[in-house]
Structure formats: C-alpha cells, structure tokens
Amino acid sequence: MPIGREKSVILDQQDKKVREQLSKIKHKIMVMSGKGGVGKSTIAVNIAVGLSLQDFMVGLLDVDLHGPSVPKMLGARDLKLTRRPDGRLGAIKYSPNLKFLSIEPLLPSEDSAIIWRGPIKISAIKQFIGDIDWGELDYLIIDAPPGTGDEPLTVAKTIPDAYALIVTTPQEVSLIDVKKSIRFCQKVKMRILGLVENMSGFICPHCGKPLDLFKRGGGQKLAEEMGIRFLGKIPVDPRIVDTGDRGKPIVGAYPESVTAQAFEDLIRNIVSATEEMVREVLEEKFMRIACPVSTPQKFEPNIEKMELFALYDIENSKILVKDVVKKPDDQDLIDFLKEQVATHIVLHNPPKELADKLSANQIRVLIAETPEANPDNLIQEYLQSKVQ
After folding, report:
1. Other C-beta atoms within 10 Å of 195: how many?
2. Are 247 and 375 part of one and the same domain?
3. What is the CATH number for 300?
4. 144 and 241 housed in the same domain
5. 40 among the known binding-site residues?
6. Are 214 and 325 found together in one domain?
7. Sign of the torsion angle spanned by Cα atoms 297, 359, 331, 353
8. Total number of domains in the chain
9. 130 marked as binding residue
10. CA separation (Å) from 365 to 290, 350, 380?
11. What pLDDT digit, counting tens, does each position of 76-95 carry?
12. Which of 282, 315, 332 represents a domain boundary (last residue)?
C-alpha cells in the first residue's frame, strides 16, 4: 500500500474512533479564556467536581499540553491510566462519577517539558478522545489553554458539537481578550454556552463576607452587550488557592462557603443552559442552514457540482452570521455537514436515498422549489414561513 494511502487509512480509523467515543457523551463543554491568569483551570476543575457531586457522570480532559494543572488541582498526580479487559486504556478514575485525563501522567517526570508543534498536538488531543475509553458520560469538561491557538482550534474541529464556556475577570484588559474568544467561536462555528466572571469581588478570610476590593460586574455587562448568557460570578477567595494547592477543590472541601455556593449556582446555570441549547435546536430556535451555491449569490441545484456552501447561523428567526465554505474534494457530503454542525440543508429535488441518509444523521432537508434562486432569498422565505 502506498505510504500516502496508508496514512489516510490510519487517520480515517482515528477519526472513526473519535466519532464513536463522542457519540457516548451527551454534552461537551470547552472552558476557554482570551488570556492567561483568569483562573480558567480552577473553574473547569470545580465545575467537573461539582457536576459529579450532583450524580452526573463526568469526564475532565486537560488539553493544556504545555502547562497541565488538572492532576495537581485534583490531588491525583499519583493516579495512572487503567487498562480495560479489551486492551484499551481507560481515563483515570478520580471518583465514582468523575474521570480525567491529562498529559502529565504520561510524562517521565512532573517537570518534563512538552516541546511540540501543531501537528503533534492535534494528534495527541485526538488520541486523548478516541484512544481512551471514557465510557458513557453526561458531561465532558475540556480545560483548554488560554488564547485561540492549536488546542482550542483542534477541540472545535474534532468535537463540532462542543459548547464554549468563556472565563474572564472584571478588568478591562481581560474583557478585551474575551471579545477575541467570542470572535473565535463565531469563526469556527462553536456555540457559546455563556460567560463566567471569575475573581468577582473578594471574600474576607476573617468574616466571610464579600467585599468590593476589586472591580466586578464587567463580565456581566459584556455578556449583555454581546448577547450571550451570563452564567455566574465566582468571588476571590484565599481558600481557592489553598484548596487548589492541596488538591481538594473548594466545592468539596468547603461546601458551605460562599464561594462553593457561587459554584453551585454556576453549575445549576450550566445544566439549565445545556438543556436549553438542545431544545433550541429541536424547536428550530437555533439553526445552521447549509445552502449549496455556485457563487455567493446563486443557488447550486446540481448535487454533483456542490462544492461551495453558504452557511447561515440563525437564532430566533434572525440571521446572525453568513459564511461561505468550500467542501474538500475528498470529503463526503454528510461528513462535511456534520463537521460544520449543520442542522439543515437546502436542496432541489434530492434523491430519496440522500434525503433519508441526511434525516438519519439529524440533518433536516429544506426543499428549494426552483433551481435558480438567490440563497439569501431562500433562507428569508423559509424564516418568514415559520413566523406565519
């Protein structure tokens, strides 16, 4: 077998394993931030532990390959991967309801440096998902490094139905970078679950009362301006540092504290938001409609000639974003649509076999009555028909 073809077969097998594993996970949430130092990993760890304490089956995946901190924050640096009877490796079991995986347990020592470039990092993250037996999960929480580089981009491309949870602090310098994270999500077509404001106010270590020592409220104001959910505020609490260093997340170590209660409110809002986002797709309040085009303003009715697609993100019958994307020549139409997280496709007189296959993959088919049409007009007509 030629080397190029052999490599392609291996990559196809890896992608298949990734899809099989992801099909067992109900909700995937990537915790991200525009800049470092905002407490993103602390948020991710406490969300994962908090969800597990509410009887959800949870996975916590640390894709910060250069600076993994999850094992330390969980107090689980001595735990190792387990091998299943079928030979596959299982994620590390932290508690009956929580498993995690990080690059750190795979390194020769805790202070080993990872000096990898993009392709190796992309492959590693895919292996963390496809080659590891995570089992059936309600939530997979993914702790990504700050910024919009290889790791969050790989998650967005590998897990197209993942949601983004963006962490910020109240300061303006952090809020500026949050806007970049929002633009990143829009560009890669990742739906935003909501925004969390960390280090919001200060909890006095003596009296336990919140003080406005630092700014607060900036994250909530920005969420309102950008039209995204505001999920909650987590105050500055000296015990967060202590519990993180001791490997005892604050939601479990001090469950009655103001900070733990803030995390409980945040987790409650996350559960509610994920359920709401699923309903929005089922009720067509959110749609991503793919429309084949020969030019950005001309519909392409011939299935054999479908190369360009206009993608419309629609929420509450309003077009939020329109993008034109080229389908790779060697990619199957349905695989392309799933990668783009399309919920609908516009076709003219599609073969029944194709229509049935699309429906089986939860992609709804909208029929264009005439082969010559303006794609924008097709979408507007469909939206108007839904309102009437």
Report:
1. 25
2. no
3. 3.30.420.130
4. yes
5. yes
6. no
7. negative
8. 2
9. no
10. 10, 9, 16
11. 988 888 887 777 888 999 99
12. 282
Q: Looking at this protein, which amino acid is placed at residue 75? A: G
Residues 264 and 290 in one domain: no
Predicted pLDDT of residue 5: 52
**What's the rounded Cα separation, in Å, for the pair 56 and 72?**
23
Q: Are residues 156 and 296 in the same domain?
A: no
Domain's final residue, options 266, 282, 298: 282
**Residue 57: phi, psi to the nearest 5?**
-85, 120
The CATH number of residue 257's host domain is: 3.40.50.300
Which residue, chain included where needed, has tokens 């929005």?
A: 280
Which of the residues in the chain have pLDDT under 50? 1
DSSP three-state, residue 56? coil
Do 364 and 263 fall into the same domain?
no
Residues 236 and 350 occupy one common structural domain: no
pTM score of the predicted model: 0.88
User: What is the edge-to-edge ordering of all strands in the sheet holding 89-90?
Assistant: 82-83, 89-90, 132-133
Question: What does the alpha-carbon distance between residue 330 and residue 332 come to, in Å, rounded to a whole number?
Answer: 7
Q: Is 34 annotated as belonging to a binding site?
A: yes
DSSP string, 239-265: HHHHHHHHT--HHHHSTTSHHHHHHHH
Same domain as 317, residue 201: no
Q: For residue 360, what are its two tokens?
A: 């089986």
Q: Helices marked H in the chain — which ranges?
A: 3-22, 40-53, 70-74, 118-130, 150-158, 172-188, 218-226, 238-246, 250-253, 258-282, 333-339, 352-360, 375-387
- Is 69 annotated as ligand-binding? no
Cβ contact 140:29 at 8 Å = yes
The whole-angstrom separation of Cα 344 and Cα 138 is 26
Look up the domain containing 153 and give its range.
3-282
Is 298 labelled a binding residue?
no
Beta-bridge partner residues of 82: 90
Q: What confidence score (pLDDT) does residue 6 get?
A: 53
Binding residue per annotation — 39? yes
Annotated ligand binding at 248? The verdict is: no
Q: Output 379-387 pairs: Cβ under 8 A, ≥24 positions apart.
A: 379/289, 379/291, 379/312, 379/314, 379/319, 379/346, 382/289, 382/346, 383/314, 383/317, 383/319, 386/284, 386/317, 387/317
pLDDT the model gives residue 107: 86
Quick one: tokens of 278? 């699923």
pLDDT at residue 1 in the model: 47
Whether residue 67 is annotated as binding a ligand: the answer is no
